[in-house]
Design a protein that fits this description.
Largest sheet: 19 strands, mixed
Number of helices: 13
Mean pLDDT: 88
Distance between the termini: 69 Å
Number of strands: 52
Shape: globular
Strand content: 35-45%
Length: 926
């Protein structure tokens, strides 16, 4: 062991010498900023001085600045990409669309006013006259005004809370590849030079703030304002928050001052955030190297994107870390993730747009390690208090398994992209997060297993110390890995980062023979069924009577044989029992798949089948009480077999239902499926087969839903008022298109057709047609006019339960007469006009939009005899048309695809029939 440590130390020293000899000095950049916040108009008025020293080794004829706030202008690249991704802007804008921008009033370079500059979106290009030679310095002075939009994103405000990031004119990085004048993209983050910041921020005196760096002065002014003066060194960005309702919790780790800012009434969450921050600082300092700054601020904020990291400052949203019960470890994991960024982002920087895995993958891996170290690797999603310890009988996902499942599903869908792809090349946000965050974390875990835990720890510490206060690349990280491990791992980095190849280790067979009276020879035949070129894997032999042997198969061939010579017979052979590899199918890693049993519910495992079982109890007016059991078998890929049976006590009958469900990933999403169901509830015996392909156009955000169904239904014991008896055998085809090109949920539409055809072996012969067109028109923020036109008709003879109904297809609240309101044909319209009542309200920090609405529904039912000629249709005119008008109220949660609690009351009806009264439901209008 001593020799090994000596080799590692020598390798580290050689690496440090080599790195220092070839590294290019970064440009020297210093910022001095003075800014005042106008809380009435939500404006920032500022002056800024940038001192820049050219360390590029070449003459610069042009100069670039980022103007990030222009991303919030209409038509910016940021919003084009945001809309192309199908994102609902209502989630970002709590009070309606509002633009943000930055306006440059003046630019002075070396004392001369400069007007010869060009602004394109978020990039400002300046021609340098004269050019700036190597090792020479330049000073730029700017005056600007900035509009802070009300938005849940990086730069914004909401309810008096200001989260200010990517807000000042920032120097574009010049590195070995030249300038990087990248515009603000929706996906991917930022790239900056390590700099020194001196920032003075003037706010109303009653506001409390937190910021990057340390507070060096507070200056009160006679007109009710105060200036906060901050200083930060060796950081590549500066962000701040401010709110008059902020409360403060203070703690520290060693000599590091930790400050938690939280909203009034969230004291418990704020103190918990401070405690989590202290524990995470201690853990990562031990794991990677000491925290390199003197302060850390954790703040509750309405920042968008779940949470956000900045040097010495992290922002967490209220619902994530301040409102959830403390036993959900997601609260602590989010805090740990953002604090891990103080190592992998803040101290060791990188081009986050080009190589996002170097910060997000590393932080996600670190978060996983932190949670596993504190709570164990199993069920690390929840830390149950003693009073809820009985819930441990359920299998809950651990963090590592959740990341693996996220990646494997993406891979099965065929949408995975190379891990080292630029952020803006990912087709969709979930592909980006599941690749960069989740696969990135698992790749590091695989690498740790490959080189060994002790060596990997040395790798991470060496990488941190070598590139602290520098920008690093994947190439730099690989060099550290190979230097410390003394291993050529180019095959690993090429395969993991530059391809989407997958492993699939299969235990094909096991051969056993007795070589002598006391020895056994066991051969495990392994197949690598995936397309990966190489991946070592552990093979474990468990012996009868106890004990095990572990060997490694290099995995560089399609077939291999691992041989064990043992004194006792081998009981079981396992491939990768610790689940350390990116194996696409872990069920075939042993001779017989493992099965786990759990009551009520559990999350599926990654390496075994899961069987859940549960009681079934119910009551109906017709049959009385029933009781029984149900069970469900699931695999890691979403395939499911279910079965339940119950006994009706009053009727002395057994009822049952069973089904099989299989997702179909080949169409590039998780929505397509095949399903088979059989059921008998003592009234209806039913068998149904459904194939539902779904095609998604990610560029225009169109979704095509197809469904092919075949059904056999025997209504052998039904209530005559509601159902007709007899056998129905039918096939059906339906198609639904949802379109949302503008990425605003209301500015879109839905189009649907359905055809149902009965087969001759049933008691009914009919053909049924239905079509529907829905359009949504935005009239203002959340004010929406929704219109729906529907029509349906059928020929032949169908049972009552298959006819059209005003209360079902017509969505009409007051018409449910079982004789008058059903028929062979239907037509009508639905119109609803919705008006939001001011700003959203919050329920456990989830924004809900209170909305009043007016609705008008019209519809008519025809019998088939009435529509056999156009003459009869014209004669009927408006006769017997039903109409209802009413009002409603809803609380809509825009963060969950328009899910709402809706109350609707018909007030005017064009018949003498009484209204059904108030209607309550959860869902969209239609």
């Amino acid at each position: 062991m001593a020799n090994r440590k000596t080799v590692i130390v020598i390798a580290v020293c050689l690496w440090l010498l080599r790195a220092s000899s070839v590294a290019t000095l970064p440009n020297q950049v210093d910022y001095r900023i003075e800014v005042t916040l106008d809380t009435e108009q939500h404006l920032l008025r500022g002056k800024q001085v940038i001192d820049f020293v050219n360390r590029t080794g070449t003459t610069l004829e042009e100069f670039y600045l980022h103007l990030y706030p222009n991303a919030y202008r209409k038509g910016s690249l940021f919003f084009q990409e945001l809309q192309q991704g199908g994102n609902d802007l209502d989630i970002l804008y709590p009070a309606g669309r509002e633009e943000g921008y930055i306006h440059i009033h003046s630019l002075v370079i070396e004392g001369k006013v400069v007007t010869d500059y060009y602004i394109d979106d978020t990039i400002m290009r300046i021609e340098l006259k004269p050019p700036l030679k190597a090792d020479e310095g330049i000073q730029l002075k700017l005056a600007f005004t900035e509009k802070v939009p009300e938005i849940f994103w990086r730069l914004g405000h909401h309810r008096g809370n200001y989260h200010i990031a990517q807000w000042y004119p920032k120097v574009v990085v010049y590195d070995k590849d030249g300038w990087h004048p990248d515009k603000y993209h929706f996906l991917g983050e930022f790239y900056g030079d390590f700099s020194t910041y001196s920032v003075s921020i003037t706010l109303p005196r009653n506001m409390v703030m937190g910021a990057t760096g340390r507070l060096v002065d507070e200056i009160s002014h006679p007109k009710g304002s105060k200036t906060w003066v901050w200083h930060a060194e060796n950081v590549h960005d500066f962000a701040w928050v401010a709110d008059e309702s902020y409360q403060e919790a203070l703690t520290q780790w060693e000599d590091i001052a930790i400050r938690s800012l939280y909203f009034k009434g969230h004291k418990r969450g704020g103190e918990r955030a401070a405690r989590h921050a202290r524990e995470a600082l201690a853990y990562f300092s031990k794991k990677y190297g000491r925290y390199p700054y003197s302060t850390l601020t954790v703040c509750e904020s309405y920042v968008g994107g779940i949470a956000m990291e900045y040097p010495t400052l992290i922002m967490l949203p209220p619902v994530l870390s301040y409102q959830l019960p403390s036993f959900f470890t997601i609260v602590e994991a989010a805090t740990a993730h953002e604090i891990a960024h103080q190592w992998w982002y803040a101290a060791v920087g990188n081009n986050e747009l080009a190589e996002a895995w170097l910060d997000e993958g590393f932080a996600t891996y670190s978060e996983m390690c932190y949670i596993e170290d504190k709570y164990g690797k199993d069920n690390s999603f929840i830390d149950l208090p003693q009073s809820l310890s009985f819930l441990k009988i359920f299998h809950l996902d651990d963090w590592r398994s959740s990341f693996y499942k996220s990646w494997i599903t993406l891979s099965l869908e065929g949408r995975e992209q190379e891990l080292l792809s630029p952020a803006y090349e990912f087709e969709y946000p979930d592909v980006y997060s599941r690749t960069v965050y989740h696969k990135g974390a698992v790749v590091l875990a695989v690498l740790e297993n490959l080189v060994g835990e002790e060596v990997f720890s040395e790798i991470m510490r060496t990488y941190f110390e070598s590139y602290k206060f520098k920008n690093a690349t994947t190439e730099d990280f690989q060099a550290v890995v190979e230097e410390v491990s003394q291993t050529d791992l180019d095959w690993f980095f090429q395969q993991m980062l530059h391809t989407t190849r997958r492993c699939d280790f299969v235990l094909e067979r096991v051969r056993v023979r007795k070589t002598s009276a006391e020895r056994y020879l066991t051969e495990a035949v392994i197949k690598q069924a995936g397309d990966a070129e190489q991946m070592p894997v552990e093979v474990v032999a468990k012996l009868k009577g106890g004990g095990k042997l572990v060997k490694r198969w290099e995995g560089n061939e399609k077939w291999g044989v691992v041989t064990f010579e043992t004194p006792n017979p081998v009981k079981e052979i396992l491939i990768d029992p610790s689940n350390w590899t990116l194996d696409v199918n872990r069920l075939n890693n042993r001779r017989f798949p493992k099965v786990a049993f759990h009551p009520l519910f559990s999350f599926p495992y990654t390496d075994r089948y899961m069987v859940t079982y549960y009681p079934k109890i119910g009551y109906t007016d017709t049959d009385g009480w029933l009781g029984g059991v149900g069970s469900r078998i699931e695999d890691p890929f979403g395939h499911r077999v279910s079965l339940s049976a119950a006994y009706i006590f009053n009727k002395n009958r057994v009822v049952y239902d069973a089904g099989f469900f299989s997702p179909i990933y080949k169409w590039g999403n998780r929505l397509s499926y095949f399903e088979f169901k059989v059921a008998d509830d003592r009234h209806v015996r039913n068998q149904r087969v459904t194939l539902a392909p779904v095609l998604v156009d990610y560029n225009s955000y169109r979704r095509h839903f197809f469904a092919f169904e075949a059904e056999h239904e025997d209504n052998y014991n039904v209530n005559q008022e509601d159902y007709d008896p007899g056998v129905i055998t039918a096939v059906a085809f339906s198609y639904r298109l949802t379109t949302n090109r503008s990425a605003l949920r209301q500015n879109g539409g839905q189009y649907q057709v359905r055809y149902e055809h009965s087969l001759p072996d049933g008691d009914y012969i009919y053909d049924k047609y239905y079509l529907e067109v829905c359009r949504y028109l935005r009239l203002g923020w959340m004010a929406t006019l929704r219109g729906r036109v529907f029509a349906g008709w059928q020929t032949g003879h169908s049972p009552r339960q298959r006819k059209f109904a005003l209360w079902r297809e017509g969505d009409m609240h007051a018409f449910d007469h079982r004789e008058l309101d059903i028929g062979d044909c239907i037509g009508g319209t639905n119109t609803i006009l919705e008006f939001p009542l001011g700003k959203s309200i919050e329920f456990f920090s989830i924004p809900l939009v209170p909305t009043v609405s007016l609705f008008l529904n019209t519809g008519k039912i025809w019998e088939s005899s009435e529509i056999r000629s156009w003459t009869r249709i014209r004669e009927s005119g408006l006769k017997n048309w039903r109409a209802e008008m009413g009002a409603g109220f809803s609380l809509e949660c825009v963060a969950f695809a328009g899910l709402a609690l809706r109350l609707q009351l018909p007030l005017l009806i064009n018949t003498e029939r009484k209204s059904r009264g108030l209607r309550i439901r959860i869902g969209s209008a239609f």
